[in-house]
Amino acid sequence: MEGFHLRRRTDSLNLKFQNGYLGPLSTSGLSIRPVTDIFMRRDTTSWYSHNLNMDMPLVAYGHAGYPLLMFPTAAADYLEYERFYLVDSIKWFIENGLIRAYSINSVNKYSLLNRESHPAWKVEMLQRYDRYIMDEVLPLIRNECGQDARPLTTGASLGAFLAANTYFKHSDNFRGTIAMSGSYDIYNYLDKGYYDDNVYFNNPAMYLPKLNDDYHLPRLRQADSIVIVTGQGNYEAPDRSRELSGILHSKGIPHLLELWGHDVSHDWPWWRKMLPHYLGRFCQS
User: Fold this and answer.
1) Is residue 54 part of a domain?
2) Is the separation of the CB atoms in 274 and 229 below 8 Å?
3) Is the pTM of this model over 0.85?
4) 3-state secondary structure of 70
5) Which residue segment(s) compose the domain that 151 sits in?
6) Can you give the pLDDT of all 285 residues of the chain as single tens digits?
């Protein structure tokens, strides 16, 4: 891709990222304060995941700031948010050292979106993906951002489910989530009637209503950064966000539910407005 300078892949989680820079990009509509370095740092790495038995690449944007872990839509890859300019939309936060964004691959094409797979394998892959995040991605982020770092998660469409599921399962390790235009019940992707522990523990619509423990529920009730946002236009399904909000409300979990207008469709131009809007509110708090 023109203007992007990729460095060689690293072979181990213990190695530092190779330095790279990306810029300049559009800053239309944003109020810019002076910064010393007008370029956005861009680092890539990849390693063989023993949880997933495949190579898993990752890209990081920025030199400092609060960590943001980004999950791609549908069956897309770790560079999707770059290609569709979502990274461009949050460039100001990155350049000013407020946010350091990390974008990873999903395994959706092997799991929820794989029509040939048995549902047991689909949810097994989700569980392995969860271990990949906790055992491999989170330590890498903490190596860069500090051992106590609790990233925000974010994603759009199916990425919103992955972002929300990661946060709700691990609220002791993540700060919150900005879930855009998502659906939070994976039963739509499984053969009707199939159920096992991996279905339950990867389906927020199942495990959140029954959450009554003395560890996770008290933490979630102290949450300050849960955003559930959706449009109400073409291809959006606002009832799915309302349903998740209803569950959170019933459990006393503070969150922000926002339904944007009936002209707001399930598409990139709106996600490029949503994410910087809520990151701005987060950075001001």
Assistant:
1) no
2) yes
3) yes
4) strand
5) 69-87+112-284
6) 333 223 323 322 332 333 333 333 333 344 434 334 457 999 999 999 999 999 999 999 999 999 999 999 999 999 999 999 999 999 999 999 999 999 999 999 999 999 999 999 999 999 999 999 999 999 999 999 999 999 999 999 999 999 999 999 999 999 999 999 999 999 889 987 799 999 999 999 999 999 999 999 999 999 999 999 999 999 999 999 999 999 999 999 999 999 999 999 999 999 999 999 999 999 998
